[in-house]
Design brief:
three-stranded antiparallel β-sheet; alpha+beta; four-stranded mixed β-sheet; 3 domains; 13 helices
């Protein structure tokens, strides 16, 4: 009786590829990776798919599971589909680099050399380029463009919703202004207007003092009254109080800015000022310069919500401007 052919063990390969495998890898004849094993037969591959043990997620790319894919799995599936010399870019690349403000995008954008021919399929958005990123790195087993390239491509691909990642990438030291300027000058002209405008705004924001940025931000909120900046304050007994960066008088809200490079002594002094304000019923809202530059909408939302809540509560206090 003929001996039944032993099933190849693909578990190690699947474990390193988020449970994903390309057809040529499954059959043991991969074009751009070492063979995992002798490989499945065509019949064994077909049987796994028909029984629902595996599913086709992209042309010739399979997941050894049923159910939806995770974000990392979608990224790796697109990477496998694109094949040799591919690089991930766009929002998926930003998320792999750890940027918190990467915009939502159902597609996974992947770059391939311009001499290759491969069509976009489902969520894998394929773009041919003569300018693969020489600063690409490997993240979770995938070739991923540099943060600067990912930011520039995302602004071109997604539009205004991607602007916060530009500031975040610079503030967190993942990309420099020089690198982003290079992407602007060397990258495609189509869709670059937003990148050019966002870079100009960022240059201006980097030069501006945090208090100036916060002042301009508060002026954009119709719900807020006039904010006094660095006023001299006194308590009901006329005793001088600490000077806040911003002051909303009718609800007793003090805005406090944390400067970069504050020392432990600076923080101790800040806590003493906060405790002094609290004795007089003042709410202190503290923000860093990075918060104001990276996510101004969240900063403004915090101030407006606090103001409206205290206005509805009818907060009473005895703090006066000197």
């Amino acid at each position: 009786m003929p001996r039944r052919r032993a099933e190849p063990d693909l578990s190690a390969l699947l474990a390193t590829q988020f449970g994903l495998i390309r057809r040529d890898q499954a059959l043991g004849v991969p074009a751009d990776t070492p063979p995992a094993a002798p490989g499945l037969t065509e019949g064994a591959l077909r049987w796994r798919l028909e029984k629902g043990l595996w599913q086709t997620v992209l042309p010739s790319v399979y997941a050894a599971q049923s159910g939806p894919l995770s974000g990392d799995q979608r990224a790796f599936a697109a990477y496998l589909y694109a094949g040799a010399a591919a690089q991930l870019t766009g929002p998926a690349a930003l998320r792999l680099h750890g940027l918190r403000h990467a915009p939502a995008d159902d597609r996974v954008h992947v770059l391939i050399p311009d001499h290759r021919r491969l069509s976009t399929a489902q969520f894998a958005a394929v773009s041919r380029t003569h300018r693969l990123d020489e600063r690409a790195s490997r993240v979770k087993g995938m070739a991923v463009v540099s943060p600067a390239r990912a930011v520039a491509d995302t602004l071109r691909l997604v539009g205004p919703d991607a602007r916060p990642v530009l500031t975040e990438s610079v503030q967190r030291g993942l990309a420099t202004l020089d690198q982003l300027e290079r992407e602007l000058s060397e990258g495609p002209k189509r869709g670059s207007h937003l990148l050019r405008t966002a870079l100009a705004d960022l240059h201006q924001g980097v030069r501006a003092a945090p208090r100036t940025l916060l002042r301009d931000l508060c002026r954009t909120a119709p719900a807020l009254p006039e904010v006094a900046w660095q006023p001299a304050l006194t308590g009901p007994d006329g005793e001088p109080l600490p000077t806040p960066d911003g002051w909303i008088a009718d609800t007793a809200i003090a805005l406090d800015l944390v400067e970069a490079g504050d020392t432990p002594d600076d923080w101790a002094g800040r806590l003493r000022r906060h405790h002094r304000f609290q004795e007089y019923g003042v709410l202190v809202l503290t923000f860093t310069a990075n918060e104001i530059r990276i996510d101004p909408g969240a900063v403004l939302g915090t101030i407006v919500r606090a103001y409206l809540e205290r206005a509805r509560a009818g907060v009473r206090h005895g703090v006066r401007t000197a």
